Amino acid sequence: MSEPAARQPDPSAASSPPPPAGGAGGGAGAKPMDAIMALCKRRGFIYQASEIYGGINGFWDYGPLGAQLKKNLKEAWWQDMIMRPCWGRKGPGGEAVRCLPLETCIIQHPKVWEASGHVGGFNDVSVDCRVCKSRFRADHLTVVSVDINPFMAGEARKTFLFSGMGTPDEVKAANKKKIDKLIEANRQQEVIFTAATYLELNEEGRAACPCPECDEKKSLTEPRQFGLMFESGTGAVRGEQMKVYLRPETAQGIFVQFKNVVDTTRVKIPFGIGNTGKSFRNEITPRNFTYRSREFEQMELEFFCHPEESQAWYRFWRDFRMEWWQSLGLKGENLQLREHAKDELSHYSTGTSDVEYRFPFTAPDFGELEGVAHRGCYDLTQHQQHSGVKLEYFDTDRGEVLPNGGRRGERYLPHVIEPAAGLDRGVLAILCEAYTKDESRPSPELMKFHPRVAPIKAAVFPLVNKDGMPEIAEKLHADLTAKFWREGFIETDAKQSIGKRYARMDEAGTPFCFTIDGDTAKDQTVTVRDRDTGKQERIAIDRVVGYVAERLQ
Ligand code: GAP
User: Fold this and answer.
1) Given strand 99-102, what is the order of strands in its sheet?
2) Ligand 1 touching residue 135 (CB < 6 A)
């Protein structure tokens, strides 16, 4: 649940989004983020929202290919978490894994957010530079003080302040040249370093702190509380409106409907409830493309279980979620599962793990893709207290055995394991992972999407526009579309050389291209070209639909 510290200033009022941290490349060996963003725009994956008006920071739209890619990822989550949870695998006690869907409102009763701790707690403290208009998270803004002769009086004693986003070591590293020069100039003197966050400084210290961006002194404002929840009002008459909030997470909708789901279905504990949809956070530092947006989509599951079984379920979900992301192509050293240290855990949590991806702009570090948290009975307890409605579950399978062989039953507040994934971050990770540069190919940039999420599943080309080839291609295109229209586009293209057509499809990430050539009419075969290897083989035309179906799994 932790995010990499904000290292980039964010002039929130600026109309265009800041470039991603790491600019052209991120850490050593990282893929070039600017090239990925350019491809996303060029091929219609992601556009800046309201672009013709200069854009709006922290908001992104998905173009035709991006919208389908995002839908495919969400669909995969829905299928593998709700409809056939964990690919039909058994739970830790050998039981079936049961999950149900729910769709809850973006706007909830304001008390929901009081109970959850979001009103009051969901606030960051920010500081602005009056000169360059940058905004920083005050708790991430570190001030390193270099004191020359700190224990002497008068002119011999000097203090130099350096500021930046991140840890003291990172700030020192960012200002290394200046600090080295200072030390060199004061070689015979005593020099000590101290560091504090902007929040820890007194008024005098804050006034002396230079802006990390423009280096101007006395330019930073006092720290200000910055509510992360977007506010709105219900009711037509201004002044009589009730203040409401756009939800900052989909999870709370599940907790407040827990009782209804138990009462209106035959579901028994253990079971999960999944909720997907838009969430909104007025992030101070929206940045790194869609990584931290102000409007984004979440896919959250709350899995309710008996407290004694909760640790086993926690481990089960943590491991499955890691495997799930791997199954969609996020493999290898760019994906990791990180167990939180004890001091990182919320007071109510006994375990949290993050599935993390090494994005080009976080490299060599990782950024959170999904958090899997053991939330205990914190949320149900909170909602029970604030609403006055009992949310306990009566478990008829527990308690002492009665003379008739039945059970007395046990009443308890279930414990909850929460795998909470970001859909937009998932799409971004998939885009970054898929982006491949290969100068030996006609189109040096290609997207190696896993076939299951690829927005275009296949393309059909007549080699030339004569000799019956267009007609055969049209029929094959129709057959493939009839079978796969739910999963993605089937393209057809008869323009330009076959090499250029393959290149266009490679850049869009189409896994399979089928070409109708002079032999097709004679022997009823076509060539199929694999996007990743460029290799071609001939297969019977009536095997094409099955060929694609097998590879979409
Ligand atoms: N209910 C728990 C919860 O919301 P979270 O870690 O704050 O936990 C879950 O959010 C996931 O939502 C994150 O792992 C991330 O993928 C995504 N997410 C959170 N804030 C985001 C933002 N500003 N932009 C894009 N995705 C975000």
Assistant:
1) 99-102, 271-280, 295-305, 415-422, 367-376, 351-357, 335-339
2) no
